[in-house]
Design brief:
Layout: H1 2-22, H2 30-37, E1 49-54, H3 56-59, H4 64-67, E2 72-77, H5 83-88, H6 90-95, E3 101-105, H7 108-112, H8 117-134, E4 139-143, H9 155-172, E5 175-178, H10 205-226
Parallel strand pairs: 1-2, 1-3, 3-4, 4-5
Helix pairs in contact: 8-9
Length: about 230
């Protein structure tokens, strides 16, 4: 009996240790976020402000402004982040710049951390609820988690989450979905291997060119709508 109780206590202890070690401390990104928050910009007053925020695929898009010269662009990506981290730094990354157009890229690291698609979607909905309340005139676009060589084993989870996220955007009616998943696959459904750097996760210029085309198409749609009589 004593041995059983001892084993149970040991098991509980190990589970607690695992939980604590896996628990995210959003302040691990504090230095990155502070750097972004303190950055100064010299923008044209006659251009709309576009903010890109999310994880390292955004952070590493260093020349994102050059892809969209008709807009003022802020890159508020902080590497390794998940939806919960973006919620934590919501005020600095989203509210403070108060963008006209907001692109969000999260979910990639959430899925790699074995979070369930429904849990991730719940946090995405929470984020949208806050934005729609605080910045009702901001146009919100989710960028779908991308396919990659290093995380191809999680393909089914990515597809499931992307479908749920797209469905949520369509149901909301005011949120848009930028699909970068399928444009990064060949005609056999395999991920392009020449669009990544050595780690097989982050993209090179070819990868960002694909993103630029998808996102540019979305921005052009807005310009067309604005020019309607």
């Amino acid at each position: 009996m004593k041995k059983s109780i001892s084993n149970l206590i040991t098991l509980i202890f190990l589970l607690l240790v695992t939980f604590i070690s896996n628990a995210q401390d959003p302040n691990r990104f504090k230095d990155q976020v502070d750097e972004l928050d303190n950055k100064q910009y010299n923008f044209s007053h006659d251009k709309k402000l576009v903010v890109f925020t999310g994880s390292s695929s955004i952070r590493m898009w260093k020349d994102v402004q050059s892809y969209f010269p008709d807009y003022n662009v802020i890159n508020n990506g902080f590497g390794g982040s998940q939806f919960s981290d973006l919620l934590y730094f919501y005020d600095k990354m989203i509210i403070k710049p108060a963008p006209d157009i907001l692109f969000i890229y999260e979910g990639d690291n959430d899925l790699a951390d074995n979070k369930k698609p429904n849990k991730i979607l719940k946090e995405a909905k929470e984020l949208v609820g806050k934005i729609e309340t605080d910045l009702p005139h901001t146009r919100i676009i989710f960028i779908s988690p991308k396919p990659s060589i290093s995380r191809i084993k999680l393909k089914n989870s990515y597809i499931t989450f992307n479908k749920k996220l797209k469905k949520f955007c369509e149901k909301d009616g005011k949120i848009e979905f930028a699909d970068v998943w399928y444009p990064m696959l060949d005609n056999k459904g395999n991920v392009f291997k020449d669009v990544f750097i050595e780690d097989g996760l982050h993209m090179n210029k070819k990868g960002y060119d694909i993103w630029g085309k998808v996102i540019g198409g979305i921005l052009k749609t807005e310009v067309t709508m604005n020019n309607l009589p």
